[in-house]
Amino acid sequence: MKYLVASMLLAASSVAAARPAPLVSIPSHDGFFDNIAAHCGKAYEGKVSVDNAAGPSSFAGKKLVMHVRRCNERELQVPFHVGDDASRTWIITKTGSGLSLKHDHRHKDGSDDKSTMYGGHTLDAGFANAQSFPADQYSKELFVSQGIPQSMGNTWQMYIYPKQFTYRLVREGREFRVDFDLTKPITPPSAPWGYED
């Protein structure tokens, strides 16, 4: 009898060990994540609506395309193509304590840029249509090491509405914003640098 009980306990513990821990989230984070995921596989063209940087913009005159390329229950990969430059991918991840936004920057050969995986994490509930990502500690240390300490104050924001998706960067004295038209899907671009189709 005790062998039977022991084997039953062993079987129960192996079942428990095989089940992953639940991914917890709140409705506003789920709503935001799901609103972007609803566009999975689609690409859209955008335009810079605000850029107060001094000097000419590196985005001027270039085709700007966001592509909601890969989606699963935990992560969204959204490449941001600037003309022929396919170095940027936004990665939005459910962390269990909110949402994380990271900027995966690659070189054309797929290797990591020295400035990569910077970003931030939500600090509050936000909304199903809007979330803010203040710079995280990794990003602040990266910016200081690269001699751009002003970027420690970065907050990235994303807004998604039925007709428009917006990517926005703000900090004291700086604002950059790109608006994408969600009413007109375009042919998706090829994979960003470092990824495969």
List keywords for this structure.
Lipocalin; 197 residues; alpha+beta; 11-stranded antiparallel sheet
Can you walk through the features of this model?
The structure is a single chain. It is built from three helices and eleven strands. The protein is of the alpha+beta class and 197 residues long. It has a single domain, classed as Beta Barrel (Lipocalin), CATH 2.40.128. Strand 5 (85-94) and strand 6 (99-105) form a beta hairpin. The chain is globular.
> Structural class of the secondary structure composition?
alpha+beta
Number of strands: 11
Give a short account of the largest sheet. Answer: 11 strands, antiparallel
Radius of gyration: 20 Å
Which segments are poorly predicted (pLDDT under 50) over 5 or more consecutive residues? Answer: none
Tell me which CATH architecture applies here. Answer: Beta Barrel
The whole-number mean of residue pLDDT values reads: 93
In the CATH scheme, what's the topology name? Answer: Lipocalin
From the N-terminal CA to the C-terminal CA, the straight-line distance is 56 Å
How much of the sequence lies in strands comes to: 35-45%
Q: Label the overall shape.
A: globular
Task: Kindly state the percentage of residues in helix.
Answer: 10-25%
List the total number of helices.
3
Order of helices and strands: HHEEEEEEEEHEEE
Overall structural domain count: 1
What is the CATH class name? Mainly Beta
